[in-house]
Each structure stands twice: as C-alpha cells, then as structure tokens.
Design brief:
The protein is mostly helical. It has 7 helices and no strands. The chain has helices spanning about 10-20, 25-35, 55-65, 70-85, 90-100, 110-115, 120-135. It is elongated.
Amino acid sequence: MASIELSKRKLGYLEELYSDYTDIDHLIAIRRDEIDHPWREKDTNTGGGRSSHVSRPQEEIVIKRENDIRLQWLLKLQKAGDKAVEQFTDEQQRMYELKYLSNDYYDWDIVGDIMGYSRATIYRKRYKFLELLGKQIGYC
C-alpha cells in the first residue's frame, strides 16, 4: 500500500502538531483543569433551594473528561507523538531537539546548516521526520 503524498499544507499542519506535542503534558493539564473547574457566574441566590440531584463529583468529572473532544484529541496526539518519538533515529532526535526543544527559533534551513546538510537534504529528511507523526495519527 503506497502512502499518500503530503502537501505543503499537511506538512505545515504536522509541524504544528509536533510543536503542540512538545508542550502536550501542559496542554492536557490545562484542559483537565478547565473541565474539572468550569467557570460559573456568581450565584446571587444566596438562600438557594435544595437540589434533588444526587451528586457524584468524581464520576461526573470522569464522564466530562471522556466526552470532551479537545481533551481526547490531546490524549490521542500524546500517544501518537510518543510512538513517533520512539521511532526516531539519532539524526531525527537531533532534528527534533534543534527545531522544537531549543530556546532559539531555528527554521529548517538553520537546522540543516547546524547538522551540515544542504537545503534539499534537510527538507527530504524533514519530510520523513514529519511523516512519522502523520502515520501515527492516521494522516498518511
């Protein structure tokens, strides 16, 4: 079975996903916090009434988390990213570190210069690098 050719737009999207993946634990924690502690308007009914609803807060949180599309997507990205990273060669690991984990902003041309590759070579390697994540998320 032949893989699907990745367009420039799809390659750009995969780069965005790798960028999100570098901060995935933080993104998941934020989303869980948003689900667990939703913003509510201040209740002006201080006398209140009694609710007939039996509260099971832990069960409600689990259900909300399982039904949250954004959280489920982040968890899927985390799993796919982990699998892609496990498949990295040493060279791809270095590319990932330079491009996504460096405090400096390196574009692919600079990554190629640092690694001693021509522009054409680094972009071929970039394609294979991005394709790893694409395959894990079912994009190609």
